């Protein structure tokens, strides 16, 4: 089949590889002038690692990344809020702190080797269903070929989501994060976060090679205020809360060395319509508080490619895909949506509740097991889980 993939991120590149490997004729359209190894650190959970093993790129990525045995969150006064050790669930389990660029480059080169054609500098503005197939509308107004169907992997701000007419609801969070990546040896074997109420959040995610991804939670308005006050005011506040970030924060010379991203949470009634299927963040963007987005994106793509292998009819493959994925995606969307305001929001009550209940929950064996299964990406619904 002739398949168009809209957006060459983690999901798009992985889909390009898997579908081209099945013998389909793949064209990926990417808005960036050049697909490159950009981005922050991401936590690849055991479920995402399983997909990388199936793609044959796990060993190399594992070698170049950081193995994390646990995740930890502390309060500003040093008291522990949560500590979750992967090995309590399975002795060979761990999280993998990976530079997004490393993962993306590996997926991109697989897609290219498998014969996927990547068209850069092609911003998609919409699509049109024709009798003979479907075509994309580009910002440049150039016509595209006619495809059998589109895989929409154009990320959290997917324009195709609106164009599809599929009902969806969701919200743009006021909160987001400033992040950067650099040398930092203070934290090595865990994801480390410090919070003060729900308004201050700092984190260090080791990504291997003596480097960490550092993030600082804030709103766009707070970011503007810091820009007016100057970098030193921001650095002072950061180091007061998270002195472990000294090595990475000290060399920052300007706010331009940091990237601000805000989050959104969108829930689609269905992931597919006539000749179009949504995967990854395009289908279910969430805040990154649970560290699942890239993992879900990889699993989405793997599952759909298996469905299409079994039944090469697009509609049937979409029906099978949605049946397999819907409960899991809904579960992770709800949990992340529920968790986000306990870490980043206005007011004090949520912070108090979190500080009171989270330590108890993470020390109660039955609840801890559910939290670990959720973290690892093993939950397949509210009451079910599948340990890989
Ligand atoms: C600060 C931060 C930390 C995160 N940490 C984690 C983590 O620890 N673990 C985890 O699993 N996930 C994490 N995530 C989430 C993760 O990065 C995403 O879930 C993942 O990248 C989704 O992949 P995707 O391919 O669906 O979308 P993306 O990677 O966003 O790719 C979308 C692609 O589509 C392109 N595109 C968009 N619009 C158009 C258009 N109109 N025309 C053509 N191309 C277009 C974009 O340029 C991009 O290349 C984090 C996210 C952020 C912001």
Write out key terms for the chains shown:
388 residues; alpha/beta; FAD/NAD(P)-binding domain; D-Amino Acid Oxidase, Chain A, domain 2; 2 domains; seven-stranded mixed β-sheet; six-stranded mixed β-sheet; 38% helix; binds flavin-adenine dinucleotide
Write the SSE topology:
Elements lengths: L1 E5 L3 H12 L3 E5 L11 E4 L1 H10 L2 H7 L1 E3 L1 E6 L4 E6 L9 E5 H14 L3 E3 L4 E6 L4 E5 L10 E4 L6 H6 L3 E16 L6 E7 L3 E9 L2 E9 H10 L1 H11 L4 H4 L9 E10 L3 E2 L2 E3 L14 H18 L3 H30 L5 H15 L1 H12 L12
Parallel strand pairs: 1-2, 1-11, 2-8, 5-13, 11-18
Antiparallel strand pairs: 3-7, 4-7, 5-6, 9-10, 12-15, 12-16, 13-14, 14-15, 17-18
Helix pairs in contact: 1-4, 1-9, 2-9, 9-10
**CATH architectural designation of the largest domain:** 3-Layer(bba) Sandwich
Give a count of the beta strands, DSSP E runs of length 2 or more: 18
Bound molecules: flavin-adenine dinucleotide
- SSE arrangement, N to C: EHEEHHEEEEHEEEEHEEEEHHHEEEHHHH
Low-confidence segments, given as residue ranges, are none
- How far apart the termini lie comes to 32 Å
Query: What is the general shape?
Result: globular
Query: Over all CA atoms, what is the radius of gyration?
Result: 21 Å
Query: Which strand order does the major sheet show?
Result: 6-5-13-14-15-12-16
CATH topology of the largest domain: FAD/NAD(P)-binding domain
Strand content: 25-35%
Instruction: Determine the fraction of residues in helical runs and give it as a percent range.
Output: 25-40%
Characterize the main sheet: 7 strands, mixed
Give the C-level CATH assignment of the largest domain: Alpha Beta
Tally the helices: what do you get?
12
Mean pLDDT: 95
Which structural class should the secondary elements be placed in? alpha/beta
């Amino acid at each position: 089949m002739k398949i168009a993939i809209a957006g060459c991120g983690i999901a798009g590149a992985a889909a390009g590889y898997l579908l081209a490997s099945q013998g389909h004729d793949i064209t990926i359209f990417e808005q960036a002038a050049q697909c490159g190894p950009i981005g922050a650190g991401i936590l690849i959970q055991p479920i995402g690692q399983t997909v990388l093993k199936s793609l044959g790129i796990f060993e190399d990525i594992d070698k170049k990344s950081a193995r994390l045995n646990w995740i930890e969150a502390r309060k500003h006064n040093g008291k522990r809020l949560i500590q979750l050790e992967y090995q309590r669930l399975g002795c060979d389990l761990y999280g993998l702190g990976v530079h997004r660029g490393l993962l993306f480059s590996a997926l991109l080169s697989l897609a290219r080797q498998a014969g996927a054609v990547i068209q850069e500098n092609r911003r998609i503005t919409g699509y049109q269903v024709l009798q003979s197939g479907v075509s994309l509308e580009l910002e440049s107004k150039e016509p595209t070929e006619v495809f059998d169907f589109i895989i929409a992997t154009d990320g959290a701000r997917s324009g195709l989501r609106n164009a599809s007419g599929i009902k969806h609801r969701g919200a743009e969070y006021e909160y987001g994060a400033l992040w950067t990546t650099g040398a930092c040896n203070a934290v090595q074997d865990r994801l480390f976060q410090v919070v003060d109420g729900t308004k201050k959040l700092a984190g260090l995610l080791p990504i291997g090679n003596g480097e960490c991804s550092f993030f600082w939670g804030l709103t766009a308005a707070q970011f503007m205020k810091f820009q007016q006050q100057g970098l030193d005011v921001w650095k002072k506040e950061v180091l007061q809360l998270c002195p472990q970030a000294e090595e990475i924060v000290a060399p920052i010379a300007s706010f331009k060395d940091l990237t601000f991203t805000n989050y959104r949470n969108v829930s689609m009634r269905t992931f597919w319509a006539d000749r179009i299927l949504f995967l990854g963040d395009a289908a279910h963007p969430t805040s990154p508080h649970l560290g699942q987005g890239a993992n879900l994106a990889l699993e989405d793509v793997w599952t759909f490619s298996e469905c299409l292998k079994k039944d090469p009819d697009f509609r049937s493959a979409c029906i099978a895909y949605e049946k397999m994925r819907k409960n899991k995606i809904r579960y992770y969307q709800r949990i992340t949506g529920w968790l986000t305001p306990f870490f980043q929001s206005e007011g004090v009550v949520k912070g108090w509740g979190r500080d009171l209940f989270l330590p108890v929950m993470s020390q109660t064996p039955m609840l801890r097991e559910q939290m670990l299964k959720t973290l690892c990406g093993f939950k397949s619904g509210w009451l079910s889980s599948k340990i890989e």
